[in-house]
Structure formats: structure tokens, C-alpha cells
Automatic annotation (TrEMBL):
A Pfam family that the UniProt record links to this protein: Peptidase_S8
Domain Inhibitor I9: 38-116
InterPro entries the record matches: PA_domain (IPR003137), Peptidase_S8/S53_dom (IPR000209), Peptidase_S8/S53_dom_sf (IPR036852), Peptidase_S8_Ser-AS (IPR023828), Peptidase_S8_subtilisin-rel (IPR015500), Peptidases_S8_3 (IPR034197), S8pro/Inhibitor_I9 (IPR010259), S8pro/Inhibitor_I9_sf (IPR037045)
Residues of the Peptidase S8/S53 domain: 163-632
Family in the record: Belongs to the peptidase S8 family.
PA domain segment(s): 414-503
Presence of keyword Protease: yes
Catalytic residues, chain numbering: D172, H247, S591
Protein name per Swiss-Prot or TrEMBL: Subtilisin-like protease SBT5.3
Any single biological process term in GO: proteolysis
Length: 804
């Protein structure tokens, strides 16, 4: 090239004494100046007038316009998105990306990197009212009193045909096809609408697809471009749809796994029947997440935007009805135009494919949500009523129930020490209590129980460090930042997990007793543990940082200590030192709550095949639980009532969602119009933003969020009757206004005479001068709700308002 020739001329002109340093320096400077990175160039929707080869040539033409040669242009292309999403992923320099972004027809250009997205890493279906009758004597599930909600649940499952005919696409880390959760025994033929393939690869052939797993693909071009050619030893993964670490198998079986009797986690915990929400729905696997090379599998998977977009593009073309994505952005400020999941999901919505995605695991800090686009159903994580109760006894007689799924037992009391008092010299003060690798002194730990605090390092890693140092037990203490909920793990020493209040009591005992001792009792599975549900501390919280006019998350579902299928290539702890194998494992995260909702969506799709994605979202949101099994408000881990920035509309109730009465519907065009309010434009060539753009809060959404209210705002909404079509239905408005504001509906009574009839209304939200907030409360969000009620239905929506 011209630049390279110029550099050679300069070198020749230099004196010999400077030649060798410059020969080293110039290539380094050149590599810095011309460093390439993968960028995604997004054009919006396809016009539909080009064949696949024409689309790819069209994309090549853009690359040729910024590359020096045709060969360079073709070699730089990773993906050409041809089905629904119009765009491509390619290696570009920042300058080349900038040139393409300036083109009028380009919606956005955004850089891909491995830290942008991450995975958000049973009794649960019975807990929400979906439970089948006992089928045979081999079902060893513990029996409980059967109430009306379970009878309703059985009827609901029968009506939905257990999801038969619905295809759920999982974008994740693959699947372990040998799991009994993916058996096709007794299933009918593959739906005729299916257009997908069974892609073969390492340890995965066509026989691994069946009438349950009807399709499987994998996407590694972006991953290999970043990390180099796939290396089995370094990657500890399979270049195929096979799941190496359990995450994908767990989420897939939670959503649509077959009913399997007599399963449990390692040690016999949670013994019973495992089933997905829609056990007869079909499964399509789209592997776009991979293990980090030369890292433990317990580290978060790598999911690159270009690979995920290719997966979603194929899923749309293959004919899935639902897409479940337990992945999200690490940056909550990522705009929709530069968010691959948001872009892919919008194209799915146009084909009436419902997309559910996890809210993220960055809570309880406010403003940490992922997947906040209003066309995505965003799912937070709460608990269920199953616990694994063990015990901790101190030498002073203090006894407390704890949670544990560690089967290792202590024979007797052992000396108790605090990790910060037994660390090797040189450990930083902030890390001294954390039981990080090689931090404990064996001569001070051997034969003892160690109190380790959560924070830095993995929970499993702390137990490993205690074992390495010769300890016989570990008390894993939550810090105030973590909160009260305790995730359980299959540790390597006897373990008791405790909340911050108990930590303080243990520390006080260690300080005041000359010879502190402790005894840890192993855990046992306990059902109907109250109160349940409550919100987990890790579930990401609102407000929505991309657009505070949309209240997120939408809903919450079980995500703590969920039992589901696991990979045969991974241990329960996901640590290489752990040689144990489990067919089913307990795992936590919004990654686990998302497929619960995806399974419920599949059932609703089966009952109401013509409902839109927005109608299904509305049905789930407006029928959700706001109270726990003690008939009190669902709580945060701190014991206070959870607000909509934690639980959205509440804890999902699939059986109620089948008959919501009214729904807040929205179309693909409505979302394009909404995009005008947040600068997400140019997506569809057939759509142009109006001169006067409506505010984002007027999108027909089942919740309301108003940031910085100054005096008065009028909200517009439309509801569609999906209830009883044989008689007239009259709905009456009621509300509990957020503190400091008033709510008034116009009209306050809606009457419907037929199914499908629509009625509009306005809600006037006004700041109340008679209840002015304190200076410290201004700008803080206040919460309330409003509802439409007839004789049978309660159509309830949350509202969040902050005053300017």
C-alpha cells in the first residue's frame, strides 16, 4: 500500500544506528493505527426484493467502498444477515466504521467486544400453579395439599396441550441432548411449519436432534475472530450445538423440558419431578455463547453480538414462535440502536415472535437493568417456597437455620475462626475476609470452621480455599450489599450460608469468646417455606436507563436455586478441580427466571395463537401476583415491600394470564413510532417518523413511568376486550396513586359488547400541591397502581413517578 511504501522509504533514509529500533517501532505503530475490530453495520428491515446472494453482494459493495481491495472486503466479512435483519458483521478499522456510519441508509454501526454481553446466570412450576396429577407409582415426588390453583393449572395445561405445536428457540450455550429432559418419547411429528436444520459438529450429529430438539445451530465466527481458531483444550467447549457448561441445558429444560420423575441435585436435594413449563413444546437450539479460553467454566460465558444476531436472524427464518434469551448487556446505558438483542428482537416482533429476556444479575443497585426495549418481555428473579434447610450451632448455644445443598457432614464441634484473622501476610485489608485463593494460612485453619464473607471471588472458590487450608467447614456470610437471600452450592466442605445479621452475631461471638466453636448441620429439602416469593438481591433493578418512560422489568419469576437439566461435560460447581457429575443441578440467576416466562408464553401461544406479542406480555403483566403466600406484599431481601423497579408488575401467574379480560396491544408499527422518541429510526423503509413525535410514555404499554413530572401529564392508553364474548362487560377504574400525585381516568367506566372491541382512555397524572414532597424526596420515584375491574377480572398496572 501507499502507506507501507512510504514507511520503507523513510527507513532507507535513516542511519544504520537507528535502523533496528525503528524496524521494531514502525510495525507496532502501524498495527495501532490500523487495528481492526468487529463492527456490526445495521440497515434495518429487508425490503424483500433481493435473493440471498444479492443481499450478500450488496453488503460486499459497502465493504469494498471502504476497503483497499475486493479480496480484503470479502475476507473481512463474518456474517451477512439475510433473512429479516438487514446488516452485516465485518472486521473494520475505526475509520472505516466511521465512514459507513455516516451513510444515510445506515441505521447504526456499533463495535462488538466480548465484555458487552453476558449470560445471566422443579418445584417452580408447582409453585405458580402448574402441576399435573400423579401419573404412576414411580413418581416419588413429595406430596402436598392440593388446592384450587393446581386444579386450575391442570385444566390450563390440558387446554394448552402442554405446549404441543409451539416451537421455542433458545439462544444460549447449547444443549446436552442425552438428558432425559429432551426425550421425544411419545411426541408427535415435527410441525410442518418448521424450516430449520440440525447442524452437526464436534460430538453432535444429526441423531442428536429428534422430535423434541427439532433443530440445532451454532455461531462461532465472531468468537473465533476475537480469540483465534477454536482450540478444544483451551476452550473446554465443543464446536457444535453441544453444551459444555450446563447453562444452555438448564434454561432449555426449564422452559420446555419433558417431565422426568425421580430426579435431584447432587446429594439427593430437591428430589422430585423435573419439568419445563411447556413439556410438549418443541425446542430449537441456537448456540451463540462460549466458554472463555483458558478460564474456569464458572466464569461468565462469552456471547458476541454478531453471533447472537446471526442466531436470531436464523431463528426468525426457521419458524420459531418464542425466543428465550438469558443474556444481557453489561452496560445499562446501551442505546437500542447499538444493542444486538434489542435489534434482533424487534425484527422477531414483526413476525409475531415473542421474545423474553433476562433483566440481569447486577442488583440491588438501581438502574442496572438489561434488555429494556419495550418489545422485549424483561424478566426479574424471585424465589419459590422450597428451601434447603440446615443449621448452624455456636458454642454459646446460638442456633440458626441456614440454607445448604452440601451433603458433607461434620462429626463434632470444631474451632471457629474469622478469615481475616487467619490470612497470610500481605493480603489487602478489603480482601482479608474473602477467602480468596491461597489467602488462608493452613497452620491456623486446619481442622477449623472458617467464616468467609461474600464479595470478591466465587462462592465455590471460597469453599475450595477453606478445604485447601485444611478447614472442615465454612460459614459463608452475606454482606449488607448482597442482602438476605442465600444461593446454595454443592461445596467441598460442610457449609452454612447466613445473612448479614447473623454474620454480626458470629463476629461478636468470635471476638468475645476465648475458644469459639461451631457445628454445621447438613441441609434437607423443605417445602412451603414462607414467605414466598420474595425478590432476590441479585436481580437487576430499574429505573430504565435507556428510556425512563418505559417501566422495567415487566415481571418476575423463580430464579433462585432452580433445579433443571445439566451438561454431562461439566461438574455441579463448574470448576475443573471438581470431578463430580450431575444430570440435574441447582442454579440461580435471572437466566433461570427468563425461561420460566418463555415456557408460560409457549402455553399462552398454544391457547391463543392469534394473540400478538404485546397482548401476551399484557396478559402476563396485568394478572401477576403482588402478594406472597402470607397474603402480604412481596418483599425485597431487606424485608421491605418490593417496588416495581424490582418486580415489575409482580410474580407471574400463567393460569390467570390465559384469561386476562383486557389487554394492552401494540403493533410493530407502534414500536417503530416509539423508536422515533428515542432516536431509533430508519429501521423500516416503509415507515417515516411523523413531524410531531408522540412522547414515549404514550406507547400502549401495560405499565406507566413518568420521570421528572412537572405539574401535569396526560397518558393515553387503549385496551382490547379478550374476555367473555357472550355478554356485555363493564370495567370500572380504581387506583392507588403514588405519593405526591393524583390519578384520574377519563372515562372511568368502560363497557364492551364483543370480543376484540377496543376502548381508549386517558389518565391525568398531576403533582399535588397539598402534599409537596420534602426536598430530599424530589427526584425520587414514588409508586402506585391502577386497575380496571369487572365481575371477574382485575386488570392491574403499576405506575412509577418522580417529581421534578
Amino acid at each position: 500500500t501507499f502507506q507501507q511504501k512510504k514507511k520503507i522509504q523513510v527507513l532507507k533514509a535513516m542511519k544504520l544506528s537507528f535502523l533496528f529500533p525503528l524496524l521494531f517501532l514502525v510495525p507496532l505503530l502501524a498495527s495501532c493505527a490500523e487495528k481492526k475490530q468487529v463492527y456490526i453495520v445495521y440497515f434495518g428491515e429487508h425490503k424483500g426484493d433481493k435473493a440471498f446472494h444479492e443481499i450478500e453482494e450488496h453488503h460486499h459493495s459497502y465493504l469494498q467502498s471502504v476497503k483497499e481491495s475486493e479480496e480484503d472486503a470479502r475476507s473481512s466479512l463474518l456474517y451477512s444477515y439475510k433473512h429479516s435483519i438487514n446488516g452485516f458483521a465485518a472486521e473494520l478499522t475505526p475509520d472505516e466504521a466511521s465512514k459507513l456510519e455516516k451513510l444515510e441508509e445506515v441505521v447504526s454501526v456499533f463495535e462488538s467486544h466480548p465484555r458487552k454481553y453476558e449470560t445471566h446466570t422443579t418445584r417452580s412450576w408447582e409453585f405458580v400453579g402448574l402441576e399435573e396429577e400423579e401419573t404412576d407409582g414411580d413418581d416419588r415426588r413429595q406430596k402436598h395439599d392440593v388446592d384450587d390453583r393446581f386444579r386450575v393449572g391442570r385444566n390450563f395445561l390440558k387446554k394448552a396441550k402442554h405446549g404441543d405445536g409451539i416451537i421455542v428457540g433458545l439462544v444460549d450455550s447449547g444443549v446436552w441432548p442425552e438428558s432425559r429432559s429432551f426425550s421425544d418419547k411419545g411426541m408427535g411429528p415435527i410441525p410442518k411449519s418448521w424450516k430449520g436444520i440440525c447442524q452437526t459438529g464436534v460430538a453432535f450429529n444429526s441423531s442428536h436432534c429428534n422430535r423434541k430438539i427439532i433443530g440445532a445451530r451454532y455461531y462461532a465466527k465472531g468468537y473465533e475472530n476475537y480469540y483465534g481458531q477454536f482450540n478444544v483444550t483451551a476452550n473446554k467447549d465443543f464446536l457444535s450445538p453441544r453444551d459444555p457448561d450446563g447453562h444452555g441445558s438448564h434454561t432449555a429444560s426449564t422452559a420446555v423440558g419433558r417431565r422426568v420423575n425421580g430426579v435431584s441435585a447432587l446429594g439427593g436435594f430437591a428430589m422430585g419431578s423435573a419439568s419445563g413449563g411447556a413439556p410438549l413444546a418443541r425446542l430449537a437450539i441456537y448456540k451463540a455463547c462460549w466458554t472463555k479460553p483458558n478460564h474456569e467454566k464458572v466464569d461468565v460465558n462469552i456471547c458476541l453480538a454478531e453471533d447472537m444476531l446471526a442466531a436470531i436472524d436464523d431463528a426468525i427464518a426457521d419458524g420459531v414462535h418464542v425466543i428465550s434469551i438469558s443474556i444481557g448487556v453489561a452496560d445499562p446505558l446501551q442505546p437500542f440502536s447499538k444493542d444486538g438483542i434489542a435489534i434482533g428482537a424487534l425484527h422477531a416482533i414483526r413476525r409475531n415472535i415473542v421474545v423474553a429476556a433476562s433483566a440481569g444479575n447486577s442488583g440491588p443497585k438501581p438502574g442496572t437493568l438489561s434488555n429494556t426495549a419495550p418489545w422485549i418481555i424483561t424478566v426479574g428473579a424471585s424465589t419459590l417456597d422450597r428451601a434447603f434447610i440446615g443449621g448452624l450451632v455456636l458454642g454459646n448455644g446460638y442456633t440458626i437455620k441456614t440454607e445448604s445443598i452440601t451433603a458433607i457432614k461434620m462429626d463434632k464441634f470444631a474451632p471457629l475462626v474469622y478469615a481475616a484473622n487467619v490470612v497470610v501476610p500481605g493480603i489487602a485489608l478489603n480482601d482479608s475476609s474473602q477467602c480468596l485463593p491461597n489467602s488462608l494460612r493452613p497452620e491456623l485453619v486446619n481442622g477449623k470452621v472458617v467464616l468467609c464473607l461474600r464479595g470478591a471471588g466465587s462462592r465455590i472458590g471460597k469453599g475450595l480455599e477453606v478445604k485447601r487450608a485444611g478447614g472442615v467447614g465454612m460459614i459463608l456470610g452475606n454482606t449488607p450489599a448482597v442482602g438476605n437471600e442465600t444461593a446454595v452450592d454443592s461445596h467441598f466442605v460442610a457449609t452454612a450460608a447466613v445473612n448479614p445479621t447473623v454474620v454480626e452475631k458470629i463476629l461478636d461471638y468470635i471476638k468475645t469468646d476465648k475458644n469459639p466453636i461451631a457445628f454445621i448441620k447438613p441441609g434437607k429439602t423443605v417445602y412451603k417455606n414462607q414467605p414466598a416469593p420474595f425478590m432476590t438481591g441479585f436481580s437487576s433493578r430499574g429505573p430504565n436507563m435507556v428510556d425512563p418512560n418505559i417501566l422495567k422489568p415487566d415481571i418476575t419469576a423463580p430464579g433462585l436455586n432452580i433445579l433443571a437439566a445439566w451438561s454431562g461435560a461439566d461438574s455441579p460447581t463448574k470448576m475443573s478441580i471438581d470431578q463430580r457429575v450431575a444430570d440435574y443441578n441447582i442454579y440461580s440467576g435471572t437466566s433461570m427466571s427468563c425461561p420460566h416466562v418463555a415456557g408460560a408464553i409457549a402455553l399462552l401461544k398454544a391457547i391463543h395463537p392469534k394473540w400478538s406479542s404485546a397482548a401476551i406480555r399484557s396478559a402476563l403483566m396485568t394478572t401477576a401476583w403482588m402478594t406472597n403466600d402470607e397474603k402480604k406484599p412481596i418483599q425485597d431481601p431487606n424485608g421491605l415491600p418490593a417496588n416495581p423497579f424490582a418486580l415489575g408488575s409482580g410474580h407471574f401467574r400463567p393460569t390467570k394470564a390465559a384469561d386476562p379480560g383486557l389487554v394492552y396491544d401494540a403493533s410493530y408499527r407502534d414500536y417503530l413510532l416509539y423508536g422515533c422518541s428515542v432516536g431509533f429510526t430508519g429501521i423500516d423503509p416503509a415507515f417515516r417518523c411523523p413531524i410531531k413525535i408522540p412522547p414515549g410514555y404514550n406507547l400502549n404499554y401495560p405499565s406507566i413511568s413518568i420521570p421528572n413530572l412537572d405539574r401535569k401529564v396526560t397518558i393515553k392508553r387503549t385496551v382490547t376486550n379478550v374476555g367473555d364474548g357472550n355478554s356485555t362487560s363493564t370495567y370500572v377504574f380504581s387506583a392507588k396513586a403514588p405519593f405526591g400525585v393524583s390519578l384520574k381516568a377519563k372515562p372511568s367506566v368502560l363497557t364492551f359488547n364483543r370480543i376484540g372491541e377496543k376502548k381508549w382512555f386517558k389518565i391525568v397524572v398531576m403533582a399535588r400541591k397539598d402534599k409537596m414532597l420534602n426536598v430530599t424526596e424530589k427526584g425520587q420515584y414514588q409508586f402506585g397502581w391502577f386497575s380496571w375491574t369487572d365481575r371477574y377480572h382485575v386488570v392491574r398496572s403499576p405506575i412509577a413517578v418522580s417529581l421534578a
